[in-house]
Amino acid sequence: MKYRTMIELICNASDKDEAFHTAGEYLRGDIDSGVRMKCKTRPLGIHRTVKGAMISLAVLFCFSALLLNVSVLEKGAQDSAVKFRIAETCTVQPELKTKAGVEFQEAWKTKKDEAILEYIRS
């Protein structure tokens, strides 16, 4: 079984290079005091599982936000609670191209105009 080990060395140093040099001396065994060491070991499988789960969760959250396209309704809100809605898709219907009679075309145009007015009222 593979394991992942994280070693943290804490020492007093004036800059990054001196801290790096002190850590190297400690790990080689040349320095015995002045450095604190913390060590954490875990099986590598758990680390990979947690890492994969976090990445999958982030990707799933982003795609769900894009798919739902949730937006906040602030205009017209009567109470103080924030309301959410799914954005609607509005399309413009092209003119009806048919060889049917004039009566059918007029009835279709009237029905379409009524549907548009009803949508605007609601």
Short description:
This protein has 122 residues and is an alpha+beta fold. Helices cover 48% and strands 21% of the residues. The protein starts with a strand and ends with a helix.
Structure description:
The structure is a single chain. Strands 1-2 form a two-stranded antiparallel ribbon. The protein has a two-stranded antiparallel ribbon with strand order 3-4. It is built from 3 helices and 4 strands. With 122 residues, the protein is of the alpha+beta class. The radius of gyration is 33 Å and the shape is rod-shaped. The protein has 2 domains: 3-68, no CATH class; 92-122.
Please outline the helices and strands.
Blueprint: E1 3-11, H1 16-28, E2 35-43, H2 44-68, E3 70-73, E4 83-86, H3 102-121
